[in-house]
Amino acid sequence: MRLQTAIARWAHILSAGWVFVLALLIIADVLGRTLFLHPIAGTKEILQNSVIAVTFLQLPLAIYSGSMLRTTLLLDHLGPRGALVLRIFAWLLGAGLFAAIAYASFSPALTAVRLGEYEGEGAMRIYTWPVRFLLVGTSAFAALAYISVLIADLRAQFSASRPVPQPLTGADLT
């Protein structure tokens, strides 16, 4: 799971850098509109596709770090076994959701490549296939992250329930 977490961190760093570049693009576009009455062509299309990409790049690290949105209203009132069952249900539901998103997005991504699908008109055309494949890849990675967290949670529960051997004291058994 260390490699997966490292990849998730790099994806998160990539998304943070992407957000910084988008901020610079927005500033340049606003300055271009205000000072020169000439906006940067394609800014809207770049931002549209980038919001999806940045969001999905951050998913795996949010899952691994336990930062996904959740409420403990029900969890606080359950015992340890009930909490475990609820967490298992949540991990499986998350894995199923993102696996379904990856599966459902794969065919449209292939179609986008085949058709040369793009956003925008005129001087700036932004191809949609990179973001579509990024959505497939990050969704599959998010599903894997949920499964990994589920396995880690079960391992922790299993090892916590086993009795820990105590060292022998008193008599010398040699």
Automatic annotation (TrEMBL):
GO terms for biological process: C4-dicarboxylate transport. GO terms for molecular function: transmembrane transporter activity. Its main location: membrane. It is found in: Cell inner membrane. GO terms for cellular component: plasma membrane. It is a multi-pass membrane protein. Residues 22-155 form the Tripartite ATP-independent periplasmic transporters DctQ component domain. Keywords: Cell inner membrane, Cell membrane, Membrane, Transmembrane, Transmembrane helix, Transport. The chain crosses the membrane at residues 7-26, 46-64, 84-106, 126-152. Belongs to the TRAP transporter small permease family. Part of the tripartite ATP-independent periplasmic (TRAP) transport system. The complex comprises the extracytoplasmic solute receptor protein and the two transmembrane proteins. This is TRAP transporter small permease protein. The lineage of its organism: Bacteria, Pseudomonadati, Pseudomonadota, Alphaproteobacteria, Rhodobacterales.
